[in-house]
UniProtKB/TrEMBL annotation:
Protein name, UniProt field: Replication restart protein PriA
Cofactor stoichiometry and binding remark: Binds 2 zinc ions per subunit.
Annotated residues for binding of Zn(2+) 1: 426, 429, 466, 469
Chain positions recorded as Zn(2+) 2 binding sites: 435, 438, 453, 456
EC number: 5.6.2.4
Subunit structure: Component of the replication restart primosome.
Any Pfam family the entry gives: PriA_3primeBD
Natural source organism: Sandarakinorhabdus cyanobacteriorum
Family (UniProt): Belongs to the helicase family. PriA subfamily.
Catalyzed reactions: ATP + H2O = ADP + phosphate + H(+); Couples ATP hydrolysis with the unwinding of duplex DNA by translocating in the 3'-5' direction
Length: 717
């Protein structure tokens, strides 16, 4: 029997099946490996090679584990993913079978506060006592919730402070009612919804792009596909970019279907995660909402996948298996014969091209729901209307904020930069404060009074004197982040109520919900936020959107810079005027003549994308050609460089294939590792995965060097 043991770096191995044991592909098993017992999965023998071992010498499988087997279509999806993204099969299998899959449903002992206080109160214990008030979970869960080590939790259990509670892991999620509160759809919404419903009941592969302007009711419409999946006794998966931002979405779901869907995310407690996994695997969970990691779960009876905000780059996984959840979702739809709906107001170029070729069915919602108009968009030429010295908002934007406040309406200022200032500079010696682990500047966060590296998370207090020359009071904050814009707004409008919305302030779904409630209740006048506020929020009284620095996206220069800038600005603009009052958008730019700015001002998506797509075609860039990146890194600078050179020397040669580099990565050091990059550009008809595998297999590198393969890369740093 051919088995993939869950052991890093190991391929498939053959084992003997003991008499009386029945095994089939997709079964979970326990097998011997050297002196150890490890878990593995039985795989289709014809699809994998294994070392030739005479039958008599094969070691026997120890046991078949009591897990629902991975079904054939999911196995084929796993094969495809591992092959396409040049990833180890077991790493992909582990996304379908996370560790909770192997826990038995009844074995949970959870703990909660309830006993006497411990005699010895260390700072860690005090922190745990404070954080764990009202919480319950396994020792591991509580350690995570309290931000302390497992040992601290075990100590509190030993002291009797945390008391044990047995919990059963197999509670069933509620079943959403497809007919609970269906909305009255507009005629154009109805047409699209009917197509989606027909596709779900047909039960065939149907990739679809649901393109609707911001506020057109895409959510209401794809809810009808979800309702149909429930009606036909199946399951629906809705993938969202970030689970932390789903509070308003969950509320809408509950209003439509009468109960919450099952949310799959990393913050679940072990018992909740186990219960969720089991309910997904046996079909009791009817609607699942989750980020990327929900995609590979073994749904028993999946009928449709919706990818909401399908243009979002966060669907691309940037660690472990570097897959793109949007693309793998479509492939899952093909393997399992079901419709996949990519919903967005600003489709990615890859998606647009597939829709225009007819590979994806293209559904449109061209107008906002309920007669709301798209906002009026104007460029603010910063060279002609510059801000006052030391400030960042043009007088035109300040005047618009003033008018909006006077009308009692709300404004949003969008700047995709967390913190107070992206750079801290010494005015005496010119020193720039850098992260010790990364080629990156430390970003000042004034709310938390720290400097932070946005790449590795390194933090330090803001120094009083320059760390280089020692000059006192010489450090200057350069450039704005949202906190600094917030400060400027409070200085200009002391009576206005402001909210700063970034991943630093919206750290949990509960906080996101509180923000939404505050804005909806009219308790906030001006929101200053990063891309976090642009995602799907609906505030009827928000009528002004100011884009603080539209040029930010023009620089940076990777192949998707223009597209991403367009998406962000259109999504941010899309928050304006969604109710009865008309909206207005002001875009601050130093390059009002740039094609992107002109297209934004005219709302000319077609013109902008026609030019972008033509450029991609001319250069053979995705989706017309394919890219793959190799990132070579090591803590040892010389080893990283040598390995990159070795790989560069061994680079494959073929007609239609171009290898660029090796070159030091723009982020030349990350988390203390020195980095080099190679970029492969290949014609579409070349077998890129096989070429990459052959290349890597032909080169022996020291174990101190790590090579990450990134197929269809989104990050070029
Ligand atoms: N048929 C309908 N009946 C009642 N309300 C509707 C209907 N369609 C849409 N709406 C409401 O209109 C608003 C905008 O809809 P929705 O948020 O679904 O748009 P969207 O296309 O997803 O927008 P965005 O892309 O900006 O997130 C929501 O408050 C939604 O509840
Ligand atoms: Zn860093």
């Amino acid at each position: 029997m051919r088995i993939i043991p869950f052991q890093h770096g190991l391929g498939a191995l053959d084992y003997a099946v003991p008499a009386g044991m029945v095994l089939a592909a997709g079964d979970a098993v326990e097998v011997p490996l050297g002196p150890r017992r490890i878990i593995g999965v039985v795989w289709d023998a014809e699809r994998l090679a294994a070392p030739d071992v005479p039958a008599a010498r094969l070691r026997p499988v120890i046991a078949r584990l009591d897990l629902p087997p991975l079904a054939e279509p999911l196995r084929r999806l796993i094969d495809w993913t591992a092959d396409y993204y040049v990833a180890p099969l077991q790493s992909v299998v582990r996304m379908a079978w996370p560790s909770v899959a192997f826990l038995s449903p009844r074995e949970f002992t959870e703990y909660r506060l309830g006993g006497p206080l411990p005699k010895r109160l260390t700072p860690e214990r005090a922190q745990a006592l404070e954080k764990l008030e009202g919480r319950q979970g396994t020792a591991r869960d509580l350690a995570r919730m309290a931000g302390v080590s497992d040992a601290v939790i075990r100590g509190l259990v030993g002291a009797g402070t945390l008391i044990a509670e047995k919990v059963s892991g197999d509670a069933s999620p509620p079943v959403p009612d497809p007919d609970f509160a269906p909305p009255a759809l507009s005629a154009e919404q109805r047409d699209v919804a009917d197509e989606l419903i027909a596709a779900v009941s047909a039960g065939q592969f149907a990739p679809m792009l649901l393109e609707g302007v911001t506020g057109s009711g895409k959510t209401e419409v794809y809810f009808e596909a979800v309702a149909e999946a429930i009606r036909v006794q199946g399951q629906a998966l809705v993938m969202v970019p970030e689970i932390a931002l789903t509070a308003p979405w969950l509320a809408r779901f509950a209003a439509r279907f009468g109960c919450q869907p099952l949310a799959w995310h990393s913050d679940l407690k072990t018992s909740e995660r186990r219960a969720a996994w089991a309910a997904i695997a046996d079909g009791r969970a009817r609607v699942v909402v989750g980020a990327r990691s929900a995609l590979f779960l073994p749904y028993a009876n999946l009928k449709t996948i919706i990818v909401d905000e399908a243009h979002e780059a966060s669907f691309k996984q940037e660690e472990g298996v570097h897959y793109h959840a949007r693309d793998v979702a479509v492939m899952r739809g093909r393997m399992e014969a079901l419709p996949v709906v990519l919903a967005t107001a600003t489709p990615a170029i890859e998606t647009q091209v597939l829709a225009s070729r007819g590979t994806y069915r293209h559904l449109h919602l061209p107008g906002r729901f309920g007669g709301a108009e798209l906002p009026d968009v104007q460029l603010v030429d910063m060279t002609r209307h510059p801000p006052a010295r030391g400030q960042f908002l043009s007088p035109l934007v300040v005047a618009a904020l003033d008018q909006t406040l006077a009308k009692g309406e709300q404004s949003l200022l969008f700047l995709n930069r967390r913190g107070y200032a992206p750079l801290t500079l010494c005015r005496t010696c010119g020193h720039r404060i850098q992260c010790p682990n990364c080629t990156a500047w430390m970003v000042e966060h004034r709310l938390s009074r720290r400097l932070a590296c946005h790449h590795c998370g390194h933090q330090m207090p803001v120094p009083d004197a320059c760390p280089e020359c020692g000059a006192a009071d010489s450090l200057a904050a350069c450039g704005p982040g949202v906190e600094r814009i917030g400060e400027e707004v409070r200085r200009l409008f002391p009576a206005a109520r402001t909210a700063i919305v970034t991943s630093d302030t919206i750290t949990s779904p509960a906080r996101a919900a509180a923000l939404v409630q505050a804005v909806a209740a009219g308790a906030v006048d001006i929101i200053i936020g990063t891309q976090m506020v642009t995602k799907g929020y609906h505030f009827p009284d928000l009528t002004l959107v100011g884009i603080v620095d539209a040029d930010l996206g023009l620089s940076g220069g990777d192949l998707r810079a223009g597209e991403r800038c367009w998406q962000q600005i259109v999504q941010a603009s899309g928050r304006a005027g969604r109710g009865e009052k008309p909206g207005r958008v002001l875009i601050q730019t130093h390059q009002p003549g740039a094609a992107l700015m002109q297209a934004l001002a005219k709302g000319d998506a077609d013109g902008f994308f026609a030019a972008e797509i033509a450029a991609r075609r001319d250069l053979g860039l995705p989706p017309f050609g394919r890219l793959a990146a190799l990132v070579i890194s090591s803590e040892d600078a010389a080893a990283a460089k040598a390995a990159a050179d070795t790989l560069g020397d061994a680079a494959p040669r073929a007609d239609g294939l171009m290898v660029l580099g090796p070159a030091p990565a723009p982020l030349a050091m990350l988390r203390g590792r020195h980095r080099h990059r190679l970029l492969v550009q290949a014609r579409r008809d070349l077998p890129l995965p096989a070429i990459l595998r052959g290349w890597l297999a032909g080169v022996a590198l020291p174990s101190s060097v790590r090579v990450v393969v990134d197929v269809d890369p989104y990050s070029f740093v």
